[in-house]
Amino acid sequence: MHEDSIEDLVTPFLGGEVGEPRLLDSGTLRLQLFRGGEVMRSGPVLSVGTRSWRIDGDSGPIVAGGDAPRFIRDTVSILDGCEFRAFEAHRPSWDATFWFGEYALRVFPTVFRGPDADVPTWSFTLGGRRALRVGVRGGWGVDHY
Fold first, then answer.
1. Is residue 116 a part of any domain in this protein?
2. Is 134 part of a structural domain of the chain?
3. pLDDT 10s digits, 5-40
4. Is 36 left (phi over 0), alpha (psi -120 to 50) or beta?
5. In sequence order, which residues have a C-beta less than 8 Å from that of residue 6 and are 6 or more positions away?
6. Nearest by Cα to 17 from 73, 70, 82, 64
7. Is 50 domain-assigned?
8. Using one digit for the tens of pLDDT, what is the confidence trace for 83-141?
9. Structural domain range at position 61
10. In a domain, 130, yes or no
11. DSSP secondary structure, the chain, as one string
């Protein structure tokens, strides 16, 4: 049983600004959070390891995980400097929405990787050498690294 909810673990980082949004060669979307131009205490990083994600703006979808890597790399820069202003996790699917400025990053876990799988759909470093990992074996947990 988890002592904290996913929201309890993520919301302390609200107010941070996205810096260095990028798509890694592995296909992972990675967002570092800063405050006042400096890495926030514990340097939170959101990593999305599934291709089932989308960034929406006021007028609709802007970019998604299935787009061409070059297009993703060019487009995710719209998040640079945006404030992390809200977060919501949906149960029991573990879909998640992260609001950065006027943009919504939506993550959709689409694969249950099997009972022995330990690869998260998305993860969020929490500081203290801890990471929230969501989508592992159809659930979530906090790991020490």
1. no
2. no
3. 999 999 999 999 998 899 999 899 999 998 876 665
4. left
5. 89, 96, 132, 134, 140
6. 82
7. yes
8. 999 999 988 888 899 999 999 999 987 665 555 556 678 999 988 888 998 886 668 88
9. 6-109
10. no
11. --SS-HHHHHGGGTT-EEEEEEE-TTS-EEEEEEETTEEPTT--EEEE-SS-EEEEETTEEEEETTS-HHHHHHHGGGGTT-BEEEEEEETTTTEEEEEETTEEEEE-------TT----SEEEEEETTEEEEEEETTEEEEEE-
Our count of domains for the chain comes to 1
How far apart CA 115 and CA 137 sit, in angstroms, is 5
Q: Which residues contact 96 (CB under 8 A, 6 or more apart)?
A: 6, 87, 88, 89, 90, 106, 107, 122, 134
